[in-house]
Amino acid sequence: MRILRELCSVPTAPFAEQRVIEWVERFVAARPALKLSRDRFNNLLLELPGRSRSKSPRLVFVAHMDHPGMVAGRMIDSKTLRANFHGGVLSEYVRGAKVRFFDKGCEIPGTVLSTEPDAKRSSYPGAVTVRVNQPVTRGCPGMFDQGPGRIRGDKFFSRVCDDLAGAASLLTLLDNLLKKPPANTIAVLLTRAEEDGFVGAIASVLYPKLLRKTDRVISIETSAMQTYAQQGDGVVLRVGDRTSIFNSGFMYFLFEQAQALARNDRTFKFQRSLMPGGTCEATVFDLYGYVTGAICVPLGNYHNMDRDKKKIGPEYVDLNDWKNMVKLFEQVVRHIREFDETFSPLRRKVEKHFRKRLPLLSALPPRPRF
User: Is 0.85 surpassed by the pTM of this model?
Assistant: First the structure.
């Protein structure tokens, strides 16, 4: 829980993820077994070498380091700031919202006075004017003033869960694996500017310094809960998003691992669902030919929009869903060598049933002649 609380308290916004990057750098520096690499776009790859020297394909988990928010621009006067806004939050929620800019060691509160529509999506802001109590340095991240990470009962609340809670689950996985490293090499790719159209993820595939074409990729998200995918019902095997469907064979393998884990751990719960609340980075990796799957937990107040109260609120996830997600990661890591892209396990199951029923096909009466 410490990693979840700490990381989800770090300020971030699309194109202003530096504080998250610095936090991850400190995390890796304290764990010599991990290797940190980066590309020229400041996407990060954390790698845990496997015990085996086998050249098996690498398993790469992906999460993004940003969250919808603001990047400070110029001061109009000593207490009025113009800032760019990145990410899918409806303007009706943004206008009048309390915000907070993170400028070096200072936290500068403010209120959004007005919004300017995004050039491509008129319902969303592309820029905001904010009343602040002191000047803000250009380039600083601004977030909705919904507080740092905290636990209340069985829920975790924060100004950001999407996707720092996803990133925290992967760093927790790495922490757990350090005690008993797996046979295969495992990697975690942390990307930038997902909320502005997957810019970091696209950079990672167009300029693949960190990725290999043979990598098996699992995109990790907190995704807007659906009526058929509720909080508390378990981690979600996300078969697709609003835009695309992911690798069928890989998703079946993840389903097998979730079933096996559920048989051995009565506290483990999972769901299997399309999550069409948004498009995730798995679509990018699938589009560029990577064997891709996705796992998520249902998210409350997606992008800080409390739709019941019609105002900005903290995002939140169910703690047991989040813990079960980490359990599933470790199960997949320990069994990744069993993944068969040819669907052999399911094919064997189908053909076994077919052989049992084959005699019934030959027992059909002859067709009548008219």
Answer: yes
